[in-house]
Design goal:
The chain is of the alpha+beta class. Among the domains are: about 200 residues, 2-Layer Sandwich (BirA Bifunctional Protein, domain 2), CATH 3.30.930.10; about 100 residues, Rossmann fold (3-Layer(aba) Sandwich), CATH 3.40.50.800. Helices cover about 30% and strands about 25% of the residues. The protein has 13 helices and 23 strands. The protein has a 7-stranded mixed beta sheet. It has a 5-stranded mixed beta sheet with strand order 20-19-21-22-23, sandwiched between helices. Helix 2 packs across helix 9 and helix 3 crosses helix 8. The radius of gyration is 25 Å and the shape is globular. It binds adenosine-5'-triphosphate. Adenosine-5'-triphosphate binds next to strand 10, strand 13, strand 16 and helix 9.
């Protein structure tokens, strides 16, 4: 993998700050290692990614239900899941610059003093690799001590296993069925980096799909294809995506198969999402450790079994970053270059922007009526009356707004607006009474 020489990444980082997608956290105090805040457009982007994920994984499916489990669970959960004993990365320290690096990832790291060199290739000597647990510890209750020690969850999946029986019974589910969850996870990553690709606090979208053991392979293939296809359907360039099956020596000891959806980032291929066969490992471990039988009894066949699990697990922030990188284009036009984000309209932070052609003749008032109508129809809508119309189009292109609606003389005379499409820059006249339906269709029919 090449070093991140790309100026594309620098451009994305700068656009994110300038336009209000992502800011450095605690910036006025000098920041805190690789932690970020999301600004007005960033939260909309995350919300759209979350919604697109939830729609595909839960809303559109009769066999998947949702859950929101706690971030802080009983510490026994993490002992049982193996995270206390084994959720670690091998780590080396540089004796000279005092940098700490993942021993299995040195080719992507840079010496703190000489960033053009890899750790160990500079003058510094590296220590032997030591295991470093990635879980954040905290204490619960008024007294600090061993009895009050707890962890911030490093994944959302365990909360799902803990509630397997609750959901099975309350939602009257029957394998094959899934439980999905979106929520924050925390990992004390040794070498975070590449902007929001790897951070210590991040959001995950995970789904545990519980199946009869004999159906494991069939559902694993199904979810691999479905998750790969989801990225394509939402506009990611297909040639920059690949599914990579893990080799046997990469698999966790309990796992029978695992594949990553990978994307070709400016800094090389990287994992976007993993789809893993977790067998019955988690349910069995929690059954044994808690004394609660986490099994399924099929009333028809009278069979009792522990379901096998297929898990698609992705990072919402990493998805948002991928959508941003993939959407970015500096498009050479006849006279100049325009910066444009070709987001799928379902992912774009703002779906429609409305402009009055001029700031007089009742056009701002009419434009505001249209804004209200579009907001009522649940479109994320922006209003802009500042600067020449061409400049306003370009501003929206730069943040990926797929449709601009302009109120002009025709609107005042004939209730017709001009809809301008971000990608083709083509314009069409549309009756106000048909605008909501028109935009709905345009969102659904969009193709990269
Ligand atoms: P990696 O190999 O990149 O550390 P992982 O294999 O440990 O990731 P999983 O535990 O499978 O990751 O987590 C599922 C998904 O959560 C990943 O595919 C990624 O999208 C996201 N993710 C994991 N760690 C981070 C992080 N530190 N920052 C942002 N997203 C993350």
């Amino acid at each position: 993998m090449a070093k991140p020489k790309s100026s594309l990444m620098d451009k994305i980082v700068s656009l994110c700050k300038r336009k209000g997608f992502v800011f450095q956290a605690s910036e006025i105090y000098g920041g805190i290692g690789n932690t970020y805040d999301y600004g007005p457009l960033g939260v909309e982007l995350l919300r759209k990614v979350r919604e697109a994920w939830w729609n595909a994984m839960v809303t559109a499916r009769p066999d998947v239900v949702g859950l929101d489990s706690a971030i802080i669970q009983n510490p026994k959960v993490w002992e049982t899941s193996g995270h206390v004993g084994g959720f670690s990365d091998p780590m080396v320290d540089c004796k000279k610059c005092k940098g700490r690096f993942r021993a299995d990832n040195l080719e992507h790291a840079s010496c703190l003093e000489k960033p053009s060199k890899r750790p160990g290739e500079c003058d510094g000597e590296l220590t032997e690799a030591r295991e470093f647990n990635l879980m954040f510890k905290t204490s619960v209750g008024p007294v600090e001590g061993t009895g009050s020690m707890a962890y911030l969850r490093p994944e959302t999946a365990q909360g799902i296993f803990l509630n397997f029986k609750n959901v099975l019974e309350s939602a009257r589910m029957k394998p094959p069925f899934g439980i999905a969850q979106i929520g924050k996870s925390f990992r004390n990553e040794i070498t975070p980096g590449n902007f929001v690709f790897r951070t210590r606090e991040f959001e995950q979208g995970e789904m545990e799909f519980f199946v009869p053991p004999a159906e494991e392979k069939q559902w694993y293939d199904f979810w691999k294809n479905e998750r790969f296809d989801w990225y394509k359907r939402h506009g990611i360039t297909e040639s920059k995506l690949r599914l990579r099956d893990h080799d046997k020596d990469e698999l966790a000891h309990y796992s029978t198969a695992c594949a990553d959806v990978e994307y070709e980032y400016p800094f090389g291929w990287g994992e976007l999402e993993g789809i893993a066969c977790r067998t019955d490992f988690d349910l069995k471990r929690h059954s044994e450790a808690s004394g609660t039988d986490l099994v399924y009894f099929d009333p028809q066949t009278k069979e009792k079994y522990t379901p096998f699990v297929i898990e698609p697990a992705g990072g919402i922030n990493r998805m948002a970053l991928t959508f941003l990188i993939d959407a970015y284009e500096e498009e050479q036009l006849e006279k100049d270059v325009r910066t444009v984000l070709h987001f799928h309209p379902l992912i774009a932070p703002t779906t429609v922007a409305v402009f009055p052609l001029v700031k007089k003749d009742g056009m701002p008032e009419k434009a505001n009526e249209i804004v209200e109508m579009l907001r009522m129809a649940r479109f994320t809508t922006d209003y802009d009356e500042k600067a020449a119309i061409g400049r306003r189009y370009r501003r929206q292109d730069e943040v990926g707004t797929p449709f601009c609606v302009t109120v002009d003389g025709d609107t005042l005379e004939g209730d017709v607006v001009t809809v301008r499409h971000r990608d083709s820059m083509e314009q069409e006249k549309v009756k106000i009474s048909e605008l909501v339906g028109y935009l709905h269709n345009a969102v659904m029919a969009w193709k990269r």
